[in-house]
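Lab notebook: predicted structure, single chain.

Context: the supervisor wants predicted structures on file for every construct in the current expression panel, including those that have not yet been purified. This is the next one on the list. No modifications to the sequence; it matches the entry in the shared construct table.
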Amino acid sequence: MVLSGARQTRTGDAGRPAAHHVRRAEAVLLAALLLALAALAWPAGTAAGAPARAAAGQATADQAAAGQATADQATADQATAGQAAAPGHGRWSAAPEGFASLDALGQNGTTGGRGGRIVTVTTQEDLARYAAAPEPYVIRVAAAITVQPKGTEFEVASDKTIIGVGTAGEIVQGGFFLGPGTHNVIIRNLTIRDSFVEGDWDGKPQDFDAIQMDGAHHVWIDHNTLTRMGDGLIDIRRDSSYVTVSWNRLHTHNKALAVGWSPNVTAQVTIHHNWFRGIKQRSPVVDNAAHAHLYNNYLSEQHRDDDPQWTYGNWSRGATRMVIENSYYDGIRNPYQADATAELVQRGSILRNTTGRTDAWGDAFDPRAFYDYRLDPAAAVPALLRNFSGPQRTLGTTTVVTVAPDGGADFTSVQRAVDSVPDGNTGAVTIAIAPGTYREQVVIPAGKPYITFRGTGGSRDDVVIVEDVPSGQPLPGGGTAGSTGSATVLVRASDFTAEHLTFVNDFDEQAHPEISGHQALALKTFGDRITFRDVAFKGNQDTLMTDSPSLTTISRVYVADSYIEGDVDFIYGRATTVIERSTIMALSRGSTSNNGYVTAPSTWRGNPYGFLITDSRIESDAPAGTFHLGRPWHPSGNPDAVGQALIRNTWLDEAIKSSPWTDMSGFSWRDARFAEFRNHGPGAGINDDRPQMTAEQAADFEVADYLAGTDGWAPHRR
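Prediction complete. Output recorded below exactly as produced.
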């Protein structure tokens, strides 16, 4: 019977997971350093650094070759090798290695819910609904979900990523089921535990698996902990294929991982970097698989009882062709065995305190003929998996959505990527934008915080978001766009970040004399805690507006190591805004007397902090003495908008007027709060029209003073 999108089984008691050991930080650092160096020299698909082979194709701890630690030394506390967090090496890879990465059966690799909506779940009902939905989803599990009835398995439809948020995501006394035809599924960074029924060690009456698949393909199971279930931990059944199982912890259980339940010899599986601890059997067992590739797995602390026949590590059964590489067997009875009808090739593994069968015969297959992969040395495997297998604190905390103009990513439009983030989003989402020009207007709604735009090109000029809408542009339903409607990018949300890209409004004033409203914003913000790093803002009038939802609401914006260009009031608004270590380019309008205004703050009089430009350069292509530093903007003549601006420790071009502040709309600049401090360059100077702060006063107007607010926000200290 199916209940709420889940496969119902039976109820019972729950247990508790085993605690993880704490590892010394020094060992982790040494491990990462050594393997990072070694990775530079090891070609993909090779076992460089592996120990010398014994005659039967095995290496024992006593036979470890020179340059590789003995098995006793390969512990977390005495690591001789480790793993760098290099993309593609497996620890935090964005894509699977092995058979799940291949194009086959009409599916191009395994991408899960890529391109679908991102949702965060904390209840059984929500997880069941999204997992079984026909549409693609990235499902973030942000809590321990206790499943009722006990043993219920969530039905998972195609095109899903189910990922735990840090170490918070748990499925307690339940699991997942992938039925016939289900494909393109990623299950990652979860703890799945405790559907075990006391007294039923074998588990057959319950069949409470952690992950069970029948006839599924292109599945990636990565960085999970699976323990104390009611039958198998992972069952890959009935012609399921193109499956990769990587970087998992499977522990304290009878039957861990099995492939088979079919007379057809079609299954293709890759099982790498998994820690099987306290397991009796099936670590794994593979029956009638066309190709089973096992590498860099760690088997330890095997469960022993009075049934030695069914106590083993790896088993190649039926017509299976199995290749084992660079794995580590510690205290294992029957480390690897094969039926006479099967084939098993083993190379480079370490056996320590093992007994029983170590079968090896036949040619099996060459994994390199199917895909590239990287082997870690066998002696490094215990340290690697003790430290880096199972759920990771940083996995799932940030969802990455990709955009590319020519396809090959989740989306071709930046706005569509934003649309995929749910309203009420509570998790960090990075929208990684590939090089290209994206001609579109983009709106980040107020209900979608924690979004980061990150350009992935070699420079910020490689990724450009651009449109040419002016404030005076007529709208189809009447009226005009207005300044807000002209913005190429409009950020209403808080906690937004943009890095390494360019925002442009390229409206051509000269080409459109029929349009009177020339304000054309490259970007406008309303939210709080907005950060821009290595970003360019390009336009003419009103290039960058930093605003807030209302006059008395304080929003904060931090701009660092960036470039801003324009001519009239091109940095303006009422938000508290810091511009640091940046270049501000004041563009000439061809005048010999007045080419424009750099700033136009409209700070609420109750806010002591408006604009701060510090440690920057204000450059210009205009003639000397033709540009103002700013003027006071009072929107709609509001007398409570009393602009504050401080320009300090900044180089000023000769284009800056000797009297750099001026009046606006009948409001005197002398009634505003304008000042300088220790500026330099040909445009700098001190006179009666250039108020200067004293050192004592300036001490209260540092970057931290502007940004701290009531929550201590300090993006400049990153």
